[in-house]
Amino acid sequence: MNTQKDNQKFDCVIIGAGAAGLFAAYSAGKRHKRVLVIDHANKIGKKILMSGGGRCNFTNYFIEHDRYLSTNPHFFKSALAQFSQWSLIELICEYGLEHYEKELGQLFCQHKSSDFLDFLKALIQSLDVEVRCLTTVNKIQSDAEFTLDLTTSDKPYQVTSESLIIATGGLSIPTMGATGFGYEVAKQFGHKLLPTRAGLVPFTWNTKEKERLATLSGTALPVRVSIGNQSFAHQLLFTHRGLSGPAILQISNYWNEGQSVAIDLLPDQTLSEYLQTQSSQKALGSILKQLWPNKFVQVWFDTFNLSKQLAQLSNLELSQLDQHVHAWRFKPGGTEGYRTAEVTLGGVSCDEVSSKTLESQFQPKLYFVGEVLDVTGHLGGFNFQWAFSSGFVAGQNC
Length: 398
Ligand SMILES: Cc1cc2nc3c(=O)[nH]c(=O)nc-3n(C[C@H](O)[C@H](O)[C@H](O)COP(=O)(O)OP(=O)(O)OC[C@H]3O[C@@H](n4cnc5c(N)ncnc54)[C@H](O)[C@@H]3O)c2cc1C
Prior knowledge:
- Helices cover 30% and strands 26% of the residues.
- 43% of the residues are buried.
- It is elongated and about 85 Å long.
- It is α+β, with helices and mostly antiparallel strands.
- Mean pLDDT is 96; it is low at 1-6.
- β1 (9-15), α1 and β2 (35-38) form a beta-alpha-beta unit.
- It has 2 domains: 9-196 and 344-397, FAD/NAD(P)-binding domain, CATH 3.50.50.60; 203-335, Translation factors (Elongation Factor Tu (Ef-tu), domain 3).
- The chain has helices at residues 19-30, 46-50, 75-82, 85-95, 113-125, 181-188, 207-213, 246-252, 271-276, 284-291, 294-300, 315-326, 382-397, and strands at 9-15, 35-38, 57-60, 68-69, 99-101, 106-109, 129-132, 135-142, 146-152, 155-166, 193-199, 203-204, 220-227, 230-238, 242-244, 261-264, 328-330, 334-335, 343-348, 366-368, 376-377.
- Bound molecules: flavin-adenine dinucleotide.
- Residues 15-21, 38-41, 46-47, 50-52, 56-57, 137, 167-169, 172-173, 177-179, 181, 342-343, 370-371, 381-384, 387 line the site of flavin-adenine dinucleotide (FAD).
């Protein structure tokens, strides 16, 4: 990895040293391109370091198309095929990165996220790739080549490049360096932007339910959450501020302001059938406590008489119980927003970018990769795989 600012002429400049930008650098560097990667943050790959609960869920065995959201539902297929999860797994195995499958095909680092960043650093180590952090892009001009006005350590200077890759990510977690810079560049070159919103994000309470349900903070349950015909079965976590946990993060990608979420609190069986297996002399409360934590039973079933014996429950009460368990309609007050969202939905429209090369249809040799584009994956390693696949493809074509 070169760190000298000697010759300021590059084959390829990449803005953003996250997952997509670093992978694009590797891909272009492998083709003997002279590459400069710029980031305004003080270090590279900050989101990689904080990802996957500290262990970076870098891909998934089951990278399937229905795991991605985009206004253009075919766009992401080519890049994911050109550099698949299997290509990534081959590379990490060659390098010797220790990893494991946690659940549902999700691959994590065995030890810590920084191991994955070390792997990315090793990939570009021996290539003609220079990385400059704490560098601001002031202006981009394009003629026969790109000219960028940059500032590093208070010193303004220019670099020129044959091609330019925008890998600045989305708006989630501004404290980690997220900006809307990529959207501004897209606009400069005449691209359409699709409205953005926070994805893979917790819901906040609405005023009606807050007081009662916030007391359940810390309680986790397996549930099935649905909006329309999209549904996810996984854990739900009650928090002081609202609902979180993997099931909620997943469904948040499909949620629009004002909508309700259907939540089944007993997804693997029917409560009425379970009650039939119980002694009719048993109190309702003690049966429910076999299924859920005590605190949850007290709060969630507070409108039912828990000391009543099963035999004393009327048909109406039984059907109300069933509804209460299997058909909770939760109307979120909102989401936690970009402050904690893992991803940004929307962004640079895929209709004006080549799916085969990721090159702009308006500006030759300009590429968009990673989260800045209107491609968002489910929770489970799908977003990093998109970042790597798209970065790889742009690096092959720049
Ligand atoms: C807490 C958290 C946990 C996550 N865990 C996972 C996970 O386990 N698995 C998974 O698949 N996905 C995960 N994600 C999502 C994943 O991190 C992103 O989808 C992925 O990082 C996107 O890669 P990117 O390179 O497009 O953007 P980023 O990784 O966001 O990189 C963009 C880079 O551009 C830089 N930049 C921004 N603006 C400018 C500017 N104006 N000038 C210069 N540089 C700029 C930023 O500093 C940053 O380094 C997680 C996200 C978060 C927030």
